[in-house]
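Good morning C.,

I know you're traveling, so I'll keep this short. The sequence:
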Amino acid sequence: MMVARRKDAGHTRVLSPEQINLLLAAKRENHKRSAHTLLSILQIKGMPANAHIRTVQRVLKQQSMGGKWKLKRPPVLLPMDIQDPMEVWMGDYSPGVYLPHPHKPGKMAQTQLCLWFDAGGSFAVSGQYYWEANQFNGMCTLKEGMLRFGIPTKVYVDNGELAGEQVKRVCAYLGVIFCVGRPYHKEGRAHAERMFQTIQGAFESELRAYPVKTIEDLNHRFNAWLNLFWNKRLIGNKTAIGRFNDAKGQVKKLKSHDLSLFLFEDKRVVRKNCLVYVQNIKFWVDPPLIGKEVMVRYNPNDLQFIEIFRNGKKYQTAYPFDPNNFAYKLCRQISLKEPKEEKCEEKVCDFLGVLAEKYPKEAHLESGGDMFIETIEHVLKKPLDGLQKGIAIKFFNDSGPFDLDKIQLNLQAICKRKGTDLHIHYYLEAIDKLPRGNGGNKND
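The tokens, ready to paste straight into the viewer:
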């Protein structure tokens, strides 16, 4: 004989449906509210319940709202307001196909695809496979796109390799707005992500049946597929390149003197030996730049030469230091020569003689009198008035010179006994008893 199952099994008999709905609504409003807080809300709303906290927790669990439940809002993907070609270029890296490693026979290495995509025109401006995803390779690909199509209004990249200072510098010089997307937020780069998916399905899938061995062949086939197939597809009644040609008159072109912008740029100070160091390689520059700060532009993958810029203008092209270089030998010979002093036969002015004529021969007595006055004022710790200075100067001229060190010691002893408020004659009488500065007395 089996036990009959209740019709309301699994449902609470303490809470009414209205109370349960209020509990769920309060939980949705703030997912951090506990069961104890929810019971208090029922009482505040005039629907008190004689229910245990476990009952409320069980009801929430049955509705899949228990534990660490949090209301998750579905992501809303809004289309970017991009209407015209050359308005926004999106750049990013994506893992590519595997190819035989060029330096490790028998091993495979994964390539990295760098792509710049015009979101308004829906066409790829440039793309290249590399062995390494870095900032310089991205700048090279960006340069190829600008040489062919022109300078865009805005550049949009993720917070990765292409968000470096060198790319920011290039965009700032060319007047391009540089934008960086939020990390792990692919919705903002939906155009580029969709293009990568298309490349993987339409291009890289073909390589499984007809593989290539070198990265040069891979890039040749990719550029052929990009320019002869993908960019010529119809979008409405026009091709992607046709839409670009309609707006071609409004696009700024990249000038030839701007090509060096796509090299790495760093500050350097030229040393005393006319050398600058780039990646531990010495480059010799002209001697006038010694001690000055210059801007150095270089290709980090090929340091056969560097470009030296001074005050925003190109100064010279420097090459790795070679001790056998003719220009270096010539400059070294010039620096080692002792400079010859040129004799001037024409007499212009006897400067010291003119000064000596204007300077009185007894001026040293006046300077001695000044030091005499300063010594007295220093010991008395107060300045002398005009009358006292006149008496002291006359006394010095009649009885001097004196040994100032002995004057100072004698005056200090007198001031210690009698103070500093006596008449100036009293101190001068004490000084008159001292020997003179040459070791004699006033009668010698």
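Safe travels,
E.
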